[in-house]
Structures are given as C-alpha cells and as structure tokens.
Amino acid sequence: MKHEIAFLTALGQAFSAQALYSEEHPSQKAALTRLHMALRAVLQNGALRLSFLENEVIAGTRPISEMRGWEWSPRLWAVGVQRLEIAVEPAPTLDDVSSMLLAIRQRLGQPAGTGSAWVHKGFRAGPLSVQVADKAERDLANSVDDALRHIGLGAEVDAVRYMHGEVEAGRDIPLAEVDGIVRALAVTIRREQGCLMPLLEIRSFDEYTTSHCCNVAMLSMGIGDQLGLSDADTRAIGTAALLHDIGKTRIPQDVLIKPGQLTDDERRIIQAHAVEGAKILTGRGLGNGLAATVAYEHHIWFNGQGGYPKLRYPRETHFASRIVHVSDIYDAVSSKRPYHDPWPRDKALELIRKLAGVELDPTVVTAFLSMAGSATEHRQQLSDQAA
C-alpha cells in the first residue's frame, strides 16, 4: 500500500497548497508535480480505486490502516466525493491531475451533500453510486452500481477467493480483506437500498461458494438495516455472514459440487462444514465469537426440531445466526447449482414464507419479505421511468 499512501499524502498536501497559495505560486506547482509523480507510481500496479468512508480510506476492497483518521477523508465523504477512480489509460497528464484537483477542491467548498460525478478522460470522482445520463459517461464512470450490474462483485469475489485460499493453506484469515469487503458492501446497500435484491439476481460468478458468501453477506446486512440495527451490529452480522461457510474450505471439492444425489456419507461430510467453520474461527485467536457462532448455528432450525449440527441441549440460536439462515436459504435456491437450476423469485420467496416459524425466525422472515417488497417497488419505478 506504500504507493497508495504516498498518493494520498501528496493529495492532501496539494489540497493544502491550493488553499494557501495562488495558482502560479511555486509551492502550489511543486505540490501538483509531486501529486502527478505519486499517481504515476501507483498506476504502475493497475487502475486506482479509492473509497472514502467517513474516517476510513479503502483501496479496492482493502482498508488502508495507516490512513485511518486521514483529515481529508470525512471532508470528501461529506461533500459526496466518496469514490475516486483513475484508469491507467489514457496516461494522466499534469493538466489532467490539475483538473481533477480543481474539481475536487471546488466540491470541498460546497455545502455537505451528494452531488453528481465528475468525469474527465480516465478520471472519476463522486458518490459511490450516481445516475449519469450520458451512456458514454456512465460506462466511463464505472461506479459501484455499474460494477454490480455488469461485471459482478469482481473485487469482492477475488478477495473472498483469496481468503479461502489462505485458509485452505493453513494460514490465518486475512481480516483486513474481510473488513474491506464488508464495509464496501455495507455502503453499497445504503446507497442502493431497493436495488439490492435485483442486483443479486444479476450475477455470473464461476464459483458458487465464493459468490454465495458475498450474496449472503449483502442480504444479511440488508435485513439488519430493515430491522433498524446499528451500523456496528449490521457490519458485525455482515462479517459473520461472509465467513459463515468458511468450513467448506475443508470439504473435498468433488463432494461440494457433485451434480447428482448425495450418499448419506457425503451428506455428513458436507454438514461437517458448520463445525469445521466454528473450529477455524475459534482456533486462530481471532476474537470473533459472533462469526464462529454463526458458522456453527446457521443451519439449525428456529423451532429446534431439525437442521444441523444437533445440539446436545436444545437452546435458542443467536439472532445473527437466524438472519444468516434466511439469507442462506434464499440465495441457495435462487442460484444455479450443480444439482438444480435457479428458482424463480416468487417461488423462492414463497419458500421463505412457508418456513417461517418452523425452520426460520418469523421476525427475520418479515423483515426479509419487506426488503423484497421494497426491491419490487423500486424495480417497478425504474421500469415506469424507462417506459
């Protein structure tokens, strides 16, 4: 992250120089040159994608811990500059960087609020999600909602795949990646709200387990918002949801993706992922008891009469586990699997309704169905606007 840190440091210095000196002053020119050089260095590793989430700065899906509390992040967030994306090509010139700096500085001088995106060549600065009228600009902007609709949760899926690979290799779960993914998804949910469930329907991931983790995390945080949970609680549930199937890294792949009927032994092997996940999350000193609890409990029925693993002494499962249970079932039946095609939306929602009070918590189901209804209304509004 050293190049990203150097770029952000130079960006802050350039903002300060703009405020203190005239455009022709040597100090402002020097700050602009340093910023241009820092940008060229960071782009050697590929396109730059930064998110400013109040006091947090995230590069791609990874939070930059060294920049936590960076003074410019909450100011950028407040005026609607929550995302900064710079492409490798066309190579940014000194004039391009100057234009970017001026546009952002002008936004900093405006009242707090969310404005439109600023797009210039390979640059985009603006909200995490923004409606852009011109198709060419919309394609260039490549905002979070565009990425979800057209290319899927690419960065998040890659990060989850990397996380699973680390666990399979016997290494610790990379918590920085987990935190970055959850924060990015949480912001997307807040920005998109009713669009959440349609976005989840439009996906084309190659690996089911990887995409399933992202989808369950999104749905679970959406339910948390619907229930009015605090931001901290919603993110904690999102983290637990993202890790709920981590135990499947210890299940043979040929059993996980078997297209035909499972034998009793194979079913027991797959069901072991709940216990294995809890072991992974408690055995590495992570201090994340909620994630371990959810990994263990997310297949246990609400009424205590079914599911797995079997509890020696029946008890009520954690509320977070009951949220993830609903999300898990909906995504499982809505996704294309080796052994079944995706269910239609109405059929999947009807299943959730039928399971309320037996396998699923009725309170959670009510919140989930309310979220689904909001998504349907929003989709109808978009359809009416397009007509």
Distance between the termini: 46 Å
Number of helices: 18
Overall structural domain count: 2
DSSP helix fraction: 55-70%
CATH topology of the largest domain: Hypothetical protein af1432
Unreliable sequence segments: 129-152, 198-206
What is the subunit organization of this protein?
Answer: single chain
Largest sheet: 6 strands, antiparallel
Number of E-state strands: 6
Radius of gyration: 23 Å
Structural class: mainly alpha
Shape: elongated
Q: Tell me the series of helices and strands, N- to C-terminal.
A: HHEEEHEHEEHHHHHHHHHHHHHH
Q: So what's the CATH class of the largest domain?
A: Mainly Alpha
Q: How much of the sequence is in beta strands?
A: 5-15%
Average pLDDT: 81
Q: What is the CATH-assigned architecture of the largest domain? A: Orthogonal Bundle
Strand order of the largest sheet: 3-2-1-4-6-5
The CATH H-level homologous superfamily of the largest domain:
Hypothetical protein af1432
Provide a short characterization of the protein structure.
With 387 residues, the chain is mostly helical. The protein has helices at residues 2-20, 26-42, 72-78, 94-108, 135-141, 144-150, 154-168, 175-192, 196-201, 208-226, 231-242, 253-256, 264-271, 273-282, 289-297, 319-334, 345-355, 362-386, and strands spanning 48-53, 56-59, 62-63, 83-86, 118-120, 123-126.
